[in-house]
Design goal:
The protein is mostly helical. It has 5 helices and no strands.
């Protein structure tokens, strides 16, 4: 499991070098939503192993988001997100063997879309749109992303310490400003 967390951490660092932190968070939510959608399709096709693999992928991304929270900067919002991520991870795993798993995963998917769209509003990105309407039903209640100015100014996207561009623990090459790849850095909790 440590190698998976290492991969997730490496993905955060890679994202930090190329996009704004809030955009990276939205892209990670998109990857989680995709994994949940794929798990639903696999379960509907009775492909149980594939469903499990996709559930594990979604849980790993959520666990990585949780581990990247900086409680010193995020305060109460970081605490709330920690509880949300734990709840999603637990619900993904506990729902797996249930007879109504598809309904449960759709509900998780729809509520995660709302969270994703809140971050997309902060990042100035568009709300979530299903790639193929036949793959997933329309979300139950996704709401609409508000313009950047209307979002809560108390949310500090830099609470995701692994995603901030100028985080002091990420050494950068002075010419290219790309992260210098040295020994793995420990994840601060």
């Amino acid at each position: 499991m440590n190698s998976r967390m290492g991969q997730v951490t490496a993905a955060y660092r890679q994202a930090a070098a190329s996009v704004h932190p809030t955009v990276a968070v939205v892209k990670l939510y998109d990857a989680t939503l995709l994994a949940i959608s794929q798990a639903i399709r696999a379960r509907e096709a009775s492909e149980f192993e594939e469903c499990f693999v996709k559930v594990m992928r979604a849980a790993t991304i959520l666990r990585g988001l949780d581990h990247a929270l900086d409680y010193a900067k995020g305060g109460a919002v970081a605490e709330r997100l920690h509880r949300v991520y734990k709840g999603y991870i637990l619900a993904l795993h506990l729902s797996y063997g249930k007879p109504d798993v598809v309904r449960r995963y759709r509900k998780l998917h729809d509520s995660l879309v709302e969270l994703r769209d809140a971050w997309a509003g902060i990042a100035g990105m568009d709300p979530f749109v299903h790639k193929d309407a036949s793959d997933m039903p329309a979300p139950l209640n996704i709401g609409t992303a508000r313009p950047r100015e209307a979002m809560d100014p108390g949310i500090d996207p830099s609470m995701f310490f692994g995603l901030t561009r100028d985080h002091p623990q990420i050494p950068r090459d002075q010419k290219t400003m790309q992260p210098v790849r040295k020994a793995a850095m420990p994840i601060r909790r």
